[in-house]
């Protein structure tokens, strides 16, 4: 919520471009800088309509004939990692592969891992993400938590995680990797130690 991609130098985009990859960075609903209505349109849409915005972006670029359908990957970090994992669950045939960089994978364990200094923000988290005390939201959280739905992932996935990440605990990546490996899925997993 709030951050947005803007035109200008981006080291990750430049890295991809230097290797021959085109990049599309979507400002999905909930991104900042487009007014209050656009920002609030992201409430309770994590893993849902926010993923639709990514799909619409890919469809638009495809309609321009600018990309090769057989070489479309998805990459993201933190929430973008959740979007990567969620997209591989929701639309397994849209992408050729994915890279999850310190991504949230299970909303239940993610909420439980909040450090004490995040507690004052719980009301905002419940409004924007989901409320873990609401039965309706709990059902949605089960559906949009990729670690609980890895059986739908069919494409290659590379997972990168910081061992001591203070925001997205290593347990988030461990769950995805362990659940996929139990299915016999080969998942390259890189953990960075400081």
Largest sheet properties: 4 strands, parallel
Radius of gyration: 16 Å
What's the quaternary structure here? single chain
Instruction: Going across the biggest sheet, name each strand in turn.
Output: 1-2-3-4
Span of the ends, CA to CA: 28 Å
Q: What is the strand tally?
A: 4
Helix content: 25-40%
Q: Tell me the β content.
A: 5-15%
Low-confidence stretches: none
Compute the average pLDDT. 93
Q: Give, in order, the helices and strands.
A: HHHEHEHHHEHE
Quickly count the helices. 8
Q: What structural class should be given to the helix and strand makeup?
A: alpha/beta
Shape: globular
Question: What key attributes describe this structure?
Answer:
single chain; 194 residues; alpha/beta; 4-stranded parallel sheet; 4 strands
């Amino acid at each position: 919520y709030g951050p947005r991609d803007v035109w200008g130098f981006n080291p990750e985009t430049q890295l991809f471009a230097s290797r021959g990859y085109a990049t599309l960075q979507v400002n999905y609903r909930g991104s900042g800088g487009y007014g209050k209505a656009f920002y609030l349109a992201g409430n309770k849409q994590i893993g849902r309509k926010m993923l639709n915005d990514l799909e619409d972006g890919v469809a638009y670029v495809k309609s321009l004939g600018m990309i090769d359908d057989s070489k479309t990957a998805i990459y993201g970090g933190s929430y973008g990692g959740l979007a990567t994992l969620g997209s591989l669950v929701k639309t397994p045939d849209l992408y050729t592969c994915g890279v999850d960089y310190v991504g949230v994978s299970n909303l239940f364990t993610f909420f439980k891992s909040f450090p004490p200094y995040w507690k004052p923000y719980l009301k905002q988290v419940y409004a924007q993400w989901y409320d873990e005390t609401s039965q309706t939201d709990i059902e949605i959280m089960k559906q949009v938590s990729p670690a609980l739905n890895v059986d739908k992932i069919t494409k290659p996935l590379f997972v990168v995680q910081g061992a001591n990440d203070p925001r997205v605990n290593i347990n988030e990546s461990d769950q995805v990797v362990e659940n996929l490996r139990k299915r016999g899925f080969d998942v390259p997993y890189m953990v960075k130690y400081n």
